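FAQ: What does the model actually see?

It sees only this:
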Amino acid sequence: MGGNKRGGLKILVVDDEEHIRELIKFNLEKNGYKVECAVDGNEALEYVKNNIPKLILLDLMLPGIDGYDVCKKIRGDKNTSNIPIIMITAKGEEIDKILGLELGADDYITKPFSVRELIARVKAILRRVNSKDDGKVYSFGSIFVDFQKHLVLKNGDEIDLTLKEFELLQILIENEGKVMTREILLDKIWGYEYIGETRTVDVHIRHLRKKVEEDDKNPRYIQTIRGIGYRFNLGE
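And it is asked to produce this:
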């Protein structure tokens, strides 16, 4: 495990290839971030037990515990479930991207990648995490949402939403009553490079329904508009 001691937001880089780790570390530090590195999944999980980074850059193909399982374990722990994760992999097939997103990754970048693109994605996610919302509070059924505090309660108990799930819920609520197409949701939350991969939206909607609906098979709030997209209904 290694990292610099300067200030800045802390980012954990998990990759078994030394030259990739050093490349990412050098460029992130040049942009003012504090960087820690882990060479495998076990080391990464050990690190996040005692330190909560602002963001994790996680390679998919790791020795021992792979990136899928690391992501699953991080998302399954209430202390770490909200840490944004960008998956990094040499694989480019859609199924790998979708699986990573299903497990809760917030973004996905494929090797070889440009350093400029990587830094742009890191900044975009951290900007969203640290942005101040308008302070609006919503309640519907047993759900209470405070955007400024990044808080969602169900029957008084806090629900752990990933960054993308929270953003999706926010955009749906703020456009309550309007039909939001999958393409619009993709563009606003994931960015233009995901256009065409509408299953990404469907996967996150499914996860979100399981967390906020009383019966996710018969959703009351997040309604499907067949062949178009989704609409949020705050009414009874």
